[in-house]
Amino acid sequence: MSDNKFAFDSSEYDRKIKQTLPYYDEFYKQVIELVKTYKNSTIKWLDVGCGTGKMGSIALENIELEKFVFSDPSDEMIRIAKERFQRSNTEFSVCNIQNLEYINKFDVITAIQVNHYLRVEERKIALQKCYKALKENGLLISFENFAPFTNIGKMVYLEKWKRYQIEQGKSVEESTRHIERYGKDYFPITLEEHLTLMRNSGFRAVEILWLSNMQVGFWGMK
């Protein structure tokens, strides 16, 4: 059982996720480039599902931040983040994305590999919570796994994904177990469904930021 309620224990999270997700570091590069392009003033930033704090680490190094809030449903992940980033402009919250209670508070909200663990109705709640938590013109930036358009595409991409994990040092058995989580432990939806959910949540601009393999980055503006 993983203490962060998802795929990996906190003690092995950073190493395992790089073995699992192609272009993982690129997710964060794309986020920073988008925020730098769009925002010129100091920023209040909420990272939901923050894990051990990778997004916070990169944001604190590259963006002028008034406040950065680390949020995760795992007590252990928040403990690790606190140890790494106890600064005057950081806050920490043990909270599930569906239980956010902020209103008009943040310029940027990030959710990196978070919402694909949710069913469609749960996603709707999560997106609405993020929308309410953003200031006017604020950005939600989300990276998730997505569902291919066809069963053939799904078969091909899952096999490609398994091969990647094996090449990164995972065993065949471990890689197979991770691939078999599709549709059981996490619930990808298509690109079209992603875009529709964000638009229906109220975002006035919704765009694809980045796309490769079975991972996609979106952003929406309130």
Question: What does this protein look like?
Answer:
With 222 residues, this protein is an alpha/beta fold. It has one domain (10-147, 187-221): Rossmann fold, CATH 3.40.50. The chain has 8 helices and 7 strands, in the order ααβαβαββαβαααββ. It has helices spanning 13-20, 24-38, 54-62, 75-84, 120-133, 151-167, 172-179, 191-200; strands spanning 43-48, 65-72, 90-94, 106-112, 134-145, 205-212, 215-221. A 7-stranded mixed beta sheet has the order 3-2-1-4-5-7-6, with helices on both faces. Mean pLDDT is 92; it is low at 1-10.
Topology:
Elements: H1 13-20, H2 24-38, E1 43-48, H3 54-62, E2 65-72, H4 75-84, E3 90-94, E4 106-112, H5 120-133, E5 134-145, H6 151-167, H7 172-179, H8 191-200, E6 205-212, E7 215-221
Parallel strand pairs: 1-2, 1-4, 2-3, 4-5
Antiparallel strand pairs: 5-7, 6-7
Helix pairs in contact: 6-7
The gross shape turns out to be globular
**Strand line-up of the largest beta sheet:** 3-2-1-4-5-7-6
- DSSP strand tally: 7
Task: Indicate how many domains the architecture comprises.
Answer: 1
Tell me the major beta sheet: 7 strands, mixed
Mean pLDDT: 92
CATH topology: Rossmann fold
| Number of helices, counting only DSSP H or I runs of 4 residues or more | 8
Distance between the termini: 37 Å
CATH architecture verdict: 3-Layer(aba) Sandwich
Low-confidence stretches: 1-10
CATH top level class name: Alpha Beta
